[in-house]
Structure formats: structure tokens, C-alpha cells
Structure of Dihydropyrimidinase:
Amino acid sequence: MLIRGGTVVSEGRSSTADVRVRGQRIAAVDEHLASEPGEEVLEAAGVLVLPGLIDPHTHFGLDSGTGPTADDWSTGTASACAGGVTTCINFATQFPGQGFAEALDAVRRQAEERARVDWSLHLNITRLDDGWERELEQVVDQGVSSAKVYTTYKDAVFYVDDWTIYRLMQRSGPAGMLVQMHAENDDMLQGRRRELEAADKTSLAFHGEARPALAEAEAVSRGLFFSRVTGSPIYLVHLSNPLSVDLVTEARNAGIKALAETCPHFLCLNDSVYQRPDATRFLMTPPIRPEAMRRGLWERVRAGQVDTVGSDHCGYSLEQRGDTSAFGQVRNPGIPGVETTLPLMYTFGVKAGLIDLQQLVRLTSEGPARAFGLWPQKGRIAAGADADLVLFDPRRSGPLRDEELHSAAAFSPFAGLTLQGRVKTTVCRGRLVFDRGRVLGEEGWGRFTERLPALPESGWSG
Ligand code: URP
Ligand code: ZN
């Protein structure tokens, strides 16, 4: 396959070039490559040719105790194909009675059969049972080098206490495991919730207020403290508060290995959405923040303080929310997003003049590849790398419609926004998985991708 005449953006550079794909790899990138007999030619003049996105935060098939998300691996990765996402790193929850390997195997079986793009797994640790230290090392050996802990959701399987996190981090660094933290101080959330309920402020309009931004920043500083005293790296997921990002930056400046992720919904929406009659579309945790914080987050993104953008794709349908008469009653927070990251980041970031194309690629491909041990195999357009590419047409513009999307959640919180640019074609390991409106990726094409341990000596460049 020859991709001809596009604007190729990779590794901090952007230029008009041709890209030759042979088999599953990129064979050459050059100013002018003559087409060879039998080669399929994709004309890309006027189009951006970017490394396929790596979404470091998806929850396909998540079950928090009330049944799985509408999106499974088939529909979730169909949505990925259409969004230019060629690798999804999904969470595998450790349920009661399961060791680490069992938790991963259960999800691995689903993904092997149904994933249409490449994938990897983060372990979601919920307990440390006897022998966990050895198990942790085995999991890293099998190419799973990140594990998430939750500081909230006490009513579900996910929550772990500080002692567990501290013990885990005493071992995670030496084992090559990057600990990821969903940071929200649960006591602060519960306190605020009681206050709101006492004042009869229980409708969805108060979803944002019920989970204060300060609760996130507090838990972030705790995670950074554990990183400081154990020496193990930490990755803070879905940061919504500029103060959280600043805490990460300060820690980094003090020599702590800490990484920051944010999400398109925090960058593109503000908390006025909770006043809308369709507020149920915007229920996720942490919630969407006030406009000043949205702007503040962009400032940090622009300044290079944020390493990755992940969608936190959690494809529950609106029906799966259950009772939406009060924020405290809602089941299943989470929104679909794997398909919309690229046009959102292009529209609100590049077109708005806040970031350039190189930064866009750093946040959505290169950053996740480096953070999660996929670099240099993925996240760049260069000879020898996997042929994971997205052709993005920045000229197409129009309001986003629920109907154009592929998630089984069947809605988007971004519907109605006028987005500049749409994905034209997605190539995953040399195969077209999306082209001009059609998902071509087949179930089972996606391959498990082993990741490097999070250790500098193994080439980890997070
Ligand atoms: O609301 C969200 N974010 N649901 C997904 C689970 C999580 O907290 O990451
Ligand atoms: Zn989370």
C-alpha cells in the first residue's frame, strides 16, 4: 500500500510525504516514492496522515456489578476503527476470588475473539492476596505493565484503601509495573453528597458539585506522595482539575516519575451541561468542571504538562443509567468517546490555535505509546514501526450526530457540536479497518500487544 501526498505528522515533525506499507509494517517514508506494480495507492493530498491513535483508557465490557456496558469488544473496537484508534488499552477488573492472571485471562478471551484493532490490557487491582508479589512480576513478564487502583467507588468492587496502594507501590516500581490511579478522595465525595442531600439538592444538576475538584487534587497529592516515598512511578488517569496537573508538574520537577492523563470531555465541555434536560448524557466520574477549569486545563496541555489524552470510553447506554431522578440514584456513570477523540482534539485544540499538530500526535499516539511501553513499535510513522495510521480530513466539517457513531451506547455527549475534520481512513497493522464511512475491521483482527516493563533499563520511555 502506498499512501501518497499527505501531510505526515510524527515524532515532532510535519511534512508532505508518501508512506509505503509492506505487510503489517511501515516500509518507507519519503518525499516521493514511486508506486510499485500491484500496490494499492491511497491518495492523501489535503489529508493529515497521523500515527493511529492509542487510546490508553477504554472500558469495553466493564461490569461494575449491574451488568456489562452496552459496548463489548466488537462494538467498542468498531467505534475505535471509525475514530482512527488502532490500539485500545482496556481495563481488566480483578473480581473477588480472582488472582491477577485470572482477571486478565477473562478479558483476554473476549478481546481475542472480538477486537477489530490492536489491544492491550491494564490490570485493575482490587485486592492483594497471598503471593501477589510474585503474581505481579508474572503479569509484567506477560506484557501487562500497568495496573490501576481506584480511591473511590466504595459501593462497588473497585475501591482500595491507602495501605493497599502503599504496599502495591512498594513493589510495583521494581517489578516494572506502572500504577495508575483514579484519584478522588471518597470521604470528601461522601461528605459533599450528604451536604447536598440535606439541602434537597439531589437532581442531576448537582452531579458536578457532588464530586468536587478538590477531592481529585487531594487524592492526586496522596498518589504523588506514595510515589515519592516508594520511588515507583505513578500515572494519574482522567485529570479534570488544573490544580491536579500542577501537582503532577511540581512532583516531576522534584524528580518524581509521574504522568498525567486528561480526557476530551474535560477539554471540550463545561459544567453548564448539568443544567440541561438531557444531563444524563454527561454523567461520568470525575464530572465535567466549570469553564475556568476547562480553560486552565487547556493552558496546561498547551504547556506540555499533560502526557496523554484518553477517552475513558465507558459505553453504557442511557437506559442503563437506571433512575436519573437524583444524582445519588444513578447507576453506571460513563460515556462513549473512543470515536470522537481525534475530531474533538483537532477542533478544540488545533483549529482553536491552542496546540499544533505535533502536540496533537504527542498526546494521542506518542505519549500513550511511551507511557505504556509500546514505543517504538507503535505511536510513530517510521520504517519498521507497525503500520497503524489514520488519514484525517480536516476540510470536512459539520455537527456531530449520534447516528454517525458506532458505539452501542447509541449516544454521544458531544452530539450537536460542530466538529472540524473527520476520519477518512484507518489502517491497523497494514489493513484497512475503516474507509469513507464503513467499518472494515473484522472481529479477531486485533492482536494483543505485549508492552515493555515500566523500567528505564528495558527501554521504557514513559
Ligand atoms: O465514569 C466513569 N469514568 N466510568 C468509568 C470508570 C472509571 O472511573 O474510570
Ligand atoms: Zn476512573
In short: Residues 59, 182, 284-285, 312, 314, 333-334 surround N-(aminocarbonyl)-beta-alanine (ligand 1) (CB under 6 Å). The mean pLDDT is 98.
